[in-house]
Amino acid sequence: MNIFRTAITANVLAVAIVASTPALAVTLDELRERGAVRAAFANESPYGYVNEEGVLTGESPEVARVIFNRLGVENLDGILTEWASLLPGLNAGRWDMVAAGMFITPGRCKEVAFSNPSYMMGQSFLVQAGNPHDLHSYEDVANNDEVTLGVLAGAVERGYARDAGIPDSQVQELPDQTSMLAAVRTGRIDAAALTSVSIERMAQLGGDRVERAEPFDTPPEAIGYGGFAFRKADEALIEEFNAHLADFIGSEEHLELVRPFGFTEANLPGDTTAEELCQGS
Known about the structure:
Elements: H1 28-34, E1 36-41, E2 49-50, E3 56-57, H2 59-70, E4 75-80, H3 86-91, E5 97-103, H4 106-109, E6 113-114, E7 119-121, E8 123-128, H5 138-142, E9 149-152, H6 157-163, E10 171-174, H7 177-186, E11 191-195, H8 196-206, E12 210-212, E13 224-230, H9 235-248, H10 252-258, H11 274-278
Parallel strand pairs: 1-4, 1-5, 9-10, 9-11
Antiparallel strand pairs: 2-3, 5-13, 6-13, 7-13, 8-11, 8-12
């Protein structure tokens, strides 16, 4: 039985990571010899987070563990960092990959290389109980200048808000899900925007003071596909990773693995590739 190790470096949270000289490529042989792959995550449930037992889990780390096990790498060592530091830290060589459920976008593809996607997902809002401002879309926020929307710093929801015409003065960036949930509960913000499965989890944790906005109108451009980020120099590793990922995604084993995190067959990415997503297709 393989051991699932989690090494969490809390000091990363306090340090701004600046990528100077790009790190050299890591090979599969190096990872096999080391016995572990270093995977960064941002503690966002259900994509990549530490559970009550102190173990790194979530859709992204669990899928990554399976794929690397098949590649002969026994352990996955998790490194906790803020969302905005995930890609700079990757390029600086502080970790080997990002396993945080990150959406594959043309902008991010300029910085790093992505695996093919492991899921697709729409959007939603977390609001106060009863949804007092009747918010069911980004456009609803744009049409009410008294509403403040919270987004995760460095995440794609910031761009979705701008695309919908929401002025910067109505948007507040927050570092993590915990602060987003607290801000909605206390009324500091009127809604928090994240993927639908994340919002559902936050609503469950938040008790009777918050709820998921239903229904919710996700604009077509906000339907995202999440994958694993690697350095651009890691072409050979990505090719090996993708080959095993293709065999795994959509299998019964895969669906059973991700079901506890709220993922179903409806979230399968189909034949969409990272290349298409990087081109904006």
